[in-house]
Amino acid sequence: MAKPRRRRNVFDPRVVLTGRGHGQVRKRFPAGQVIYSQGDPPDATFLVESGSIKVSTVVRNGREAVLALPGPGDFFGVRCLLGTPHTATATALTDSSVVRVTTAALCRMVREVPDFAEMFATFLVQRCADDQERLISHLTHSAG
C-alpha cells in the first residue's frame, strides 16, 4: 500500500518570523555550541533558518538518545508551550542561524495570524505522527 502523501502547508513561517519582530531575535551558533540544555527553563521556541541542530537527551543509564535533527524550516524547543523544563539539549551540528521566538510572541502569532496558526498546528501534528512512527518502528524492530 502506498504511503499517503504529506500535506505541505504553503505558508512560509519566515513571513512572520524574521528575527526582527517583537519577541524575536536572529541568533547564530557555531558548530558544537549548545543552544539550550536539558533542565533549563523554557522561554522560547526556535525556527532553523540555516544549518542543522541536534536535539538529544541523556537517559538514566548515561546514554544519549537523539530525538530530532531539525534543519532549515523546522521548529525545535516547542515544548516551551508546556512551561516545563527542557527535557533535551539542543546543539548546533553545523554553523547555524535560528530565529528565537519567545513563548509570549509565539502565542500572540498563533492568535493573530491564522495562516501561521494553521501551519504551526500542522507542524505539531506531523511531528507527533513522525514520533509515533519512530516509536512503533523501534518497538517492532527491537522485539525480534
Question: What would you note in describing this structure?
Answer:
The protein is α+β, with helices and mostly antiparallel strands and 144 residues long. The protein has a single domain, classed as Sandwich (Jelly Rolls), CATH 2.60.120. The chain is 27% helix and 28% strand. The chain is built from two helices and eight strands. It has helices at 103-112, 114-142, and strands at residues 24-29, 34-36, 44-50, 53-58, 64-68, 75-76, 89-92, 96-102. The chain has a four-stranded antiparallel beta sheet. A hairpin with a 5-residue loop joins strand 4 (53-58) and strand 5 (64-68). Helix 1 packs across helix 2 (114-142).
Radius of gyration: 16 Å
The counted number of beta strands is: 8
CA(first)-CA(last) distance: 24 Å
CATH superfamily: Jelly Rolls
Count of discrete alpha- or pi-helical segments spanning 4 or more residues: 2
Biggest sheet details = 4 strands, antiparallel
DSSP strand content = 25-35%
For the record, the CATH class is Mainly Beta
Shape: globular
Strand order of the largest sheet: 1-8-3-6
Average pLDDT over all residues: 88
- Fraction in helix: 25-40%
Fold-level CATH name:
Jelly Rolls
Unreliable spans are: none
